[in-house]
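In the lab's daily routine, each protein ends up as an entry in a very long ledger. A line of letters takes care of the sequence, but it says nothing directly about the fold. The three-dimensional part falls to structure tokens, numbers that each stand for a local backbone shape. The outcome of that step, for a single protein, is printed below.
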Amino acid sequence: MLLCFLFILLGCKSEKTHQINLEEIPYKEIENEVGGLTSNDQKKAFLQQINDLDQEVRIRSNEVVKNHGYDSEDNFKVTEEMINIDRINLAKIEAYLKLYGYPKIDSVGGEAASTAWLVIHHASSIEVREKHFDTFYKAYKSGDLEGGQFTFYLNRFYEMKKGERMDIVGAFTEEFEIDTLLRSMDLLKEAP
């Protein structure tokens, strides 16, 4: 009996379980910060800071995985940080979109304007994509959201909605791909 107990006790591996500590999002502070952006230079700096944070943590994550492995404690820590950055960045971008709409390239420049797309792209929720479809579609139509970025957004949206990737056979244009994705998800009737 004692031998059985020792076998069971020693034979069981202790699995590390990690719980992500989600930071509380300071919505009121974010609303005040976004509301205080009175010039295009301030808007550009705000968007660029979000873009830089988004990319910096992802570059660090790739380095940690390369140097320490996917299952390392270091990777868990940087993943937790990335999740928190993504959540705060999403709250900031949603506040920005609500107040100002999609950033205009001619007002803040291309990289800063693409920050809204980047943050929504990194959101893991289909509801976020649905919520911002009209804004993104208008931005694409006006030229403030590049076709390749809009295609990427729609492809991820399609995959989340349908549970599979869209497969278009043969050569096709960006416009054809966008139109096909919009029609396959019945988004054209919703488009402004």
User: Anything to note?
Assistant: Residues 126-192 form one domain.
